[in-house]
Amino acid sequence: MSDEPIPAEVDSEEEIPEEHPRYQDLVTRHRIEAGVEKGITHLQGMHAEGRGSAFDYLLGERTIESAREAERAAAAVLLLAERPVISVNGNVAALAPRETVELAEAVGAAIEVNLFNRTPKRMNAIADHLRAHGARDVLGLSADARIPGLNHERAKVDAEGIYAADVVVVPLEDGDRAEALSKLGKTEIVIDLNPLSRSPQAAEIPIVDNLIRALPNVTDHARELRGSSETELQAIVDAFDAEAALADAEQVIRSGLR
Ligand code: ATP
């Protein structure tokens, strides 16, 4: 860790010195705090953020090579998809609203709000926040279908959104829902900094990278791959080895060889 003092409290992102060695982490922390204040992020989101931050520190707060390959494969899967959907929770909305919208536009995906702690107030606050960052259609509010195998609020999805999707991007998803979506036959792209978490292990494409780096990376790959043929895209997907990517991330984290 650096000896430089970390500002205890900042009112706006601009107050965080860009030259600070933990700049990205401070920005992330600030966005989650701001998300809680705005009512879009649940307090539990702070714990999730803390866990993520520790893993990111061990990864060197950078995109490792195996994650870059996963991001490229994710872009190919999304371009091949018929009905891709990006699932957004309170942390995703707080951390990367614009990046979520940009990825959705680059691959023609729908955006659906899907919350563990679902209340109409939070659902609407998140939908408004996404719209303020350029989202045109935000799904998830009607919640007229259920994911089998999950109970109560966690099972609620839109019939025209996640329920009908062939590919779902689930950043920072909890393990139960990731497993249930997988059983439903969805191709899952999970973004999670913990390679040992159940969610990335349930995914066809696990991306062990910080959401704030991963989303723009997938978007860049998608823009670059847009003119590729189906055969070329499929070859990228086929060459990706999810188990090897997870093992590589674990090895980087455990060895400290960053
Ligand atoms: P499981 O998937 O086994 O249920 P969990 O209980 O740790 O694991 P949650 O608390 O529901 O999962 O989700 C938090 C997960 O999100 C953690 O694995 C954490 O590492 C990850 N995470 C938090 N912030 C980020 C981020 N900015 N980018 C990517 N992953 C993150």
Question: Main traits of this protein?
Answer:
single chain; 258 residues; alpha/beta; Rossmann fold; two-stranded antiparallel ribbon; 11 helices; binds adenosine-5'-triphosphate
Write up what this structure looks like.
Helix content is 50%, strand content 11%. It is built from eleven helices and eight strands. The protein has a single domain (65-257), classed as Phosphopantoate/pantothenate synthetase (Rossmann fold), CATH 3.40.50.12640. β6, α7 and β7 form a beta-alpha-beta unit. The strands form two sheets. Strands 3-2-1-6-7-8 form a six-stranded parallel β-sheet, with helices on both faces. The site of adenosine-5'-triphosphate has 19 residues, from α2 and α8. Adenosine-5'-triphosphate binds at residues 28, 48-49, 51-52, 55, 95, 172, 174-175, 191-194, 197-199, 210-211.
